[in-house]
Amino acid sequence: MNKPDPSSREHEAYENMDQSPAASGEHAVKPVYLTQGEINALQKAIMFLKFECEETDSLLYAGSPLLNSVLEKVRDAHDYAEYSKDFHSRPNEYAERFMRAKLERSYAEELEPRERTAEQRAEILGTCMYPFPVK
């Protein structure tokens, strides 16, 4: 099971479970203990959502900074974290082609098309491609 890192700042929330209202909400830290099987399932579900789900509505979640944070944390807690980090540190051409096509479909489906700069499109792609780097 995953124990909180006592050296991290987030550990303070584990010691003070009676959080003030200021520490509640989206940024409140709560301890969660997962089995390796649960970690595998969560990681696979997020990766499916990002890189296999054809629905363009899934981009809302595929590019979510919060889900990317969850993905990073479960990857770091996985028994094979070092292998996974190494694997995800390399560009994935298939995943990038898939994501680019899904993003283009999403842009084409917009009821009110929005102009996006090249920088904005690159940032969206990078967020959706996490944990893989973009070529």
List low-confidence stretches: 6-19
Strand elements, count: 0
Q: What structural class do the secondary elements suggest?
A: mainly alpha
How large is the share of residues in beta strands? under 5%
Average pLDDT rating: 86
* Radius of gyration from the alpha-carbon trace, in angstroms: 17 Å
Helix content: 55-70%
Name the shape in a single word.
Answer: globular
Report how far apart the termini are.
35 Å
Count of DSSP H/I helices = 7
Tell me what you see in this structure.
By secondary structure, the protein is an all-alpha fold. The protein contains 7 helices and no strands. The protein has helices at 11-15, 36-51, 59-62, 65-77, 81-88, 93-109, 118-129. Mean pLDDT is 86; it is low at 6-19.
